[in-house]
Design brief:
Length: about 120
């Protein structure tokens, strides 16, 4: 059996970037300010994570103006959707493996407690 953690991509797996991709998947476009509040990040921290995702071509960043006020929004790309799906698949595989290991371990421990003590001969 292979190690499913090798299937995790560092660019996607990082907690904040996984959150960004997940929120971006939920809508056609997500505002910078919404991401900042939802993820509890400073503008600089969020900007850095967006840059990493943009350079990996997992999101598209769009800058515009609403009147005189600048507005930044992000949307997930096809590559971003694919990377997020792969991440979720790998995580599910890990969870399944852990659950299987726990189920297989529990009966062995349970049986040891249920075995009657052998009389001394």
């Amino acid at each position: 059996m292979s190690d499913q953690t090798s299937e995790l991509q560092d660019v996607v797996h990082q907690r904040t970037r996984l959150g960004i991709l997940t929120l971006a998947l939920e809508g056609s476009s997500v505002q910078f300010s919404y991401l900042q509040k939802a993820l509890g990040l400073t503008p600089g921290n969020l900007g850095r994570h967006l840059l990493v995702l943009e350079e990996a071509r997992l999101i598209k960043v769009t800058k515009s103006f609403e009147g005189r006020k600048p507005s930044t929004s992000i949307s997930i790309t096809a590559a971003g959707r694919k990377a997020l799906k792969a991440e979720i698949f790998a995580l599910k595989s890990i969870v399944t493996r852990v659950e299987r290991a726990e189920v297989e371990r529990v009966p062995a421990r349970g049986l040891a407690r249920l075995r009657p003590a052998l009389p001394n001969a």
